Amino acid sequence: MALTPKDSVLFDLYTSLAERLAAAARALEALVKAPQDERLAISGQVAALEQEADDLLIKIVTRVDDMFVTPYDRGDLQALANALDDSVDAIEAASDLAVLHNIGTFIEGTEDVADAVRRLAELTASSMQRLRSLKELDFYWVEAARIEDDGDRLHRRLTAKMFDGSYKAMDVLRYQGVLDKMEESLDDMADVARIIRTIALKES
């Protein structure tokens, strides 16, 4: 059954997916701060959110495919859904690796990267509610780029710190896997902002 461009269900699905992203990011930040024996449970919470995000992605893609006329460019809508889901996937991978690698104490500064992930995820979730109107989004694009830049800078500094000779090679590999996935999630969320900006420019 074809849907009309005014159907609000599609936009609600995007908001729900972004809310799962924010919840996963908050859980990741909690995991980084938590004692080691509490991380498995938190990682399980992130995995459950990732599964919910996957289910929402399928609903979005199916709904867009079923629409005879889409509210925005069909390719942009699909790319937006995939970028949101990729962000959640990266967060889930970071939390899972932290447990699988049996990390005891994270390298100093990891909490700052997790904080950047959480801030950008929450910004994404709050801004996704404006996808339908495409109004009052200038702050979102600017702030998303700023947070991503901050996170990338922190990631580079921690990477340099890991390779300064103070850490064992195996510990470096454990830390790097988690940090790289955090940084990947930031990149994916920056892509979300860029896609929404592209949509807005096309509609202006």
- The outline comes out as elongated
Low-confidence stretches: none
| Gyration radius, in Å | 18 Å
Fraction of residues in helices?
over 70%
Terminus-to-terminus distance: 29 Å
Number of strands: 0
Q: Structural class of the secondary structure composition?
A: mainly alpha
Order of helices and strands: HHHHHH
Q: Provide the residue-averaged pLDDT.
A: 93
CATH class assignment: Mainly Alpha
CATH superfamily: Phosphate transport system protein phou homolog 2, domain 2
Main sheet record: none
Tally the helices.
6
According to CATH, what is the topology?
Methane Monooxygenase Hydroxylase, Chain G, domain 1
Our count of domains comes out at 1
What portion of residues belong to β-strands? under 5%
Would you identify the CATH architecture?
Up-down Bundle
Characterize the structure shown.
It is a single chain. By secondary structure, the protein is mostly helical. The chain has one domain: Methane Monooxygenase Hydroxylase, Chain G, domain 1 (Up-down Bundle), CATH 1.20.58.220. It has six helices and no strands. The longest helix has 35 residues, at 169-203.
Question: What are the key terms here?
Answer:
204 residues; mainly alpha; Methane Monooxygenase Hydroxylase, Chain G, domain 1; elongated
Compile the SSE list and pairings.
Blueprint: H1 9-33, H2 39-66, H3 74-100, H4 110-128, H5 138-162, H6 169-203
Helix pairs in contact: 1-2, 1-3, 1-4, 2-3, 3-6, 4-5, 4-6, 5-6
